[in-house]
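Researcher: Structure prediction, please.
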Amino acid sequence: MNPAHLDTLLSIIDEGSFENASLALSISPSAVSQRIKALEKSVGRVLVSRTQPAVATEAGEVLVQAARKMALLQAETREQLAERLDEIPLTIAINADSLSTWFPPVFAQVATWGGATLRLRLEDEAHTLSLLRRGDVLGAVTREGESVAGCEVVGLGSMRHLPVGTPALRDRYLVDGRLDWEQMPVLRFGPKDVLQDRDLEGRVDGPRARRRTSIVPSAEGFGEAVRLGLGWGLLPEAQAAPMLATGEVVQLDDQVVDTPLYWQRWRLESRMLARLTDAVVDAARAGLRV
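Model: Predicted structure follows.
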């Protein structure tokens, strides 16, 4: 199997199209197309769905994972041979709440590693493993403690979410001293927001009425929407603490949500992946509940 063909496949998936891959590889679009056709002919399978963006087929995902491993090992070999290291793309799947709270110290660590670069894929922590299984990323912050085949897992700690809203919102939906959870407007991060989808468990019995739901797909924007009274939501403890201290929001009840988080990475003899794992674990231990 031609390594140049594998590298071309990986570039198409990372860059999103044949045209962008040609720019990244400094070859013509026709050369990109010819390489992929040759690779598909050699394995007897269609490897890339010609969509926008381009995505790997099931067979292509297997080769993408192999190509990413080869690219990482080749880059590290060049570094060990004291050759010029342009960049090592360390691809990570992470949820928005982690990225906006405890994860940023990892940036400071990676910044000291010469030519290393990070490529982050934002996904709900309940869904990050799908990117790891497909070979799209080298590691993932996830709520799943059972390791994916070919990966190893490290416990990071627990992220606590608090049910918060503005005092005015709380008072508006108090009925005989109890909150009307079904009528009070609520916030969602997005359609895969598993955490928020369970927010009525233990608060409402029986059938649940359809609620006024606003979707804000940004961790910072979500916090601002809560602070300004658009609805109530489950905020990470670190994000909610300053607003609770100033009285801009209040904790609506004592029912908090603790979510164990894990770091899963490819089981690969890689110094860079080991350093990345150490940086992620250190940041988590400082920013999450043990």
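Model: The chain has twelve helices and 13 strands.
Researcher: Thanks, that helps.
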